[in-house]
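Sample entry (73 residues):
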Amino acid sequence: MAARDPGAHDKQTAGIVPNLFAAVVIGVGGWIVSRVLRGLAMNLLNAAGADHLPQELPPGTAAKLSNLARTLV
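Predicted structure, serialized as tokens:
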């Protein structure tokens, strides 16, 4: 019968830590990039006057396109 390494479980658990840290860093970085891109898209739509486009719709039904785009992006 082969002898079992008593520290094998600790080594396996310690091997997960760098992967978990990398996943957190990637997730936070992606969140920051998405916030920046959302702000840029909203500013571009505001500068282009996209909020004035739906004025032909009946009152109360027009939504601001920049806010809609912010939600989608």
